[in-house]
Specification:
Glutathione-S-Trfase_C-like, 8 helices, Thioredoxin-like_sf, binds glutathione, 7% strand, Glutathione S-transferase, 209 residues, Glutathione_S-Trfase, alpha+beta
């Protein structure tokens, strides 16, 4: 990684929630991109860390810009390549969709413990109380989302947009993990429509390990 990459480049292992967001959106936009595995089991290079000292993925390079923070990357992609359908011009419409991207960060904090336990940790090392508490927290968050989706088809409003992408990725994990879940009909309906999107099926619905 000596010089800036010549076209849209995504750095990050695909089995990361935050990398999946960016790759899925690149597919939605039909962007010509390339992705390099880095982070997790792939480790990091000094050249990468010089650009992203957080020791985290994802990071993108696009012409003059080097950018980390997955939701900031989504916003950049929408503004640069997406047009108004993805990134509404009206400040109110934009804010109503946009907040679900930040809401996801709170949600992800709750889902982290059950995800790491069920997908990546031997069962004899599980903290069962913490897992149960966190699943309950996830359910409380999802109830809020369920109420919202009961009144409109997408988190982004009347059309699918970037507001749906972060929670789409985390919903895949929620629905894939093998524990009993309360029913959230509007979330389930939204998720069924998300699953029909080719970029989601191809890049997000991969093994969680
Ligand atoms: N707020 C950051 C969080 C990034 C993050 O936590 N990434 C995880 C993967 S989902 C990571 O890099 N973990 C360490 C690693 O993969 O080496 C973002 O949204 O991009």
């Amino acid at each position: 990684m000596a010089a800036a990459e010549p076209f849209f480049t995504i750095w990050g292992r695909l089995n990361s929630h935050n990398v999946k967001k960016v790759v899925w959106f690149a597919e939605e936009l039909r962007l010509a991109y390339r992705r390099h595995d880095i982070g997790g089991a792939f480790g990091y290079t000094d050249a990468y860390l010089a650009r992203n000292p957080n020791r985290l993925v994802p990071m993108i390079e696009d012409g003059k810009i080097v950018l980390w923070e997955s939701n900031a990357i989504l916003r950049y992609m929408a503004a640069e390549y997406g047009g108004p359908a993805w990134f509404p011009a009206d400040p109110i419409d934009r804010a109503l969709a946009d907040r679900w991207m930040d809401w996801q960060i709170t949600y992800a904090d709750a889902q982290r413990e059950p995800f790491l336990a069920f997908a990546r940790t031997p069962e004899d090392q599980w903290d069962y109380d913490a897992i149960a508490r966190r699943i309950n927290q996830c359910a409380q968050h999802l109830k809020v989302m369920d109420t919202y989706l009961g009144e409109r088809p997408w988190l982004s409003g009347s059309q699918f947009g970037i507001g749906d992408i972060p929670m789409g990725v985390y919903a895949y994990t929620w629905f894939s993990l093998p524990f009993d879940k309360p029913e959230f009909p509007a979330v389930a309906d939204w998720y069924a429509r998300i699953r029909e999107r080719p970029g989601f099926a191809d890049k997000v619905m991969i093994p969680l390990t």
